[in-house]
Design brief:
Keywords: Coiled coil. This protein is mostly helical and about 230 residues long. It contains 8 helices and no strands. About 90% of the residues lie in helices and about 0% in strands.
Length: about 230
């Protein structure tokens, strides 16, 4: 009699223990389900924020405009190169004579430097006037024989041609074209920066979609296990 009572009590305790174990298992699953649901909601919210806040930027493809600006810069560079040759060609013929002139004058503002880099060193009308003064002085010194050259007449004529040419106008045109190029280059930098930002945003959204899909799969699997457990 006593042994039967002990056996029955043991059986009831086993049943209670099994029920407690099932309860703990279900409790754990419910906790995991809630946790996953919150995580999915968080990912969805972040994805919605990205979509709403950056829709135009993410969908915008700037590759066409970037290519167009790049071609425009190439065209401008071609114009600058052509104009630079026009500016430098007559001046370069005076390089050797200018070195002799600088040696005689001993000035820090060397004429040969201006001749070799007129686009950078002639920035104003005053700079141009300095060049003209130096060329006139060099011409006079060549005529007086203070500067020895093989062909005096050729050097003098070249100096006269330079001063009679549209050198200053060409330099002004060069500056304007160079300024226009800087504007296009700035626009191109902005376009590239925005395009890179848009690509990064799209990458974030795609990653968010994958994360949400993965979490959703885990949640469905957990809910399926949960439903199977509570049937018993």
């Amino acid at each position: 009699m006593f042994e039967k009572g002990i056996g029955r009590l043991k059986s009831e305790m086993d049943s209670i223990r099994d029920n407690v174990s099932e309860y703990e298992k279900i409790k754990k699953m419910v906790f995991e389900i809630n946790e996953l649901s919150e995580e999915i909601d968080s990912v969805k919210s972040a994805r919605m924020a990205l979509n709403e806040g950056n829709t135009k930027e993410e969908k915008w493809d700037a590759s066409g405009e970037i290519a167009e600006k790049g071609l425009l810069i190439e065209k401008i560079d071609g114009e600058l190169s052509k104009l630079s040759k026009t500016i430098r060609s007559p001046l370069m013929q005076l390089e050797r004579t200018a070195k002799k002139y600088d040696h005689i004058m001993g000035s820090k503002d060397r004429l040969v430097d201006i001749i070799l880099n007129p686009e950078s060193l002639i920035r104003s009308r005053e700079d141009y006037d300095v060049l003209v003064d130096k060329l006139n002085d060099m011409k006079d010194r060549v005529n007086r024989g203070e500067i020895e050259v093989k062909k005096n007449g050729h050097v003098v004529n070249t100096i006269m041609d330079v001063m009679a040419s549209e050198l200053y106008q060409n330099l002004e045109s060069y500056k304007k074209i160079l300024y226009d190029r800087s504007i296009v280059a700035d626009e191109l930098r902005v376009l590239k920066a925005v395009d890179e930002s848009a690509k990064a945003r799209r990458g974030e959204i795609e990653m968010g979609v994958r994360s949400a899909d993965e979490l959703k799969g885990r949640l469905e699997s957990l809910e399926k296990r949960y439903n199977e457990v509570i049937k018993f």
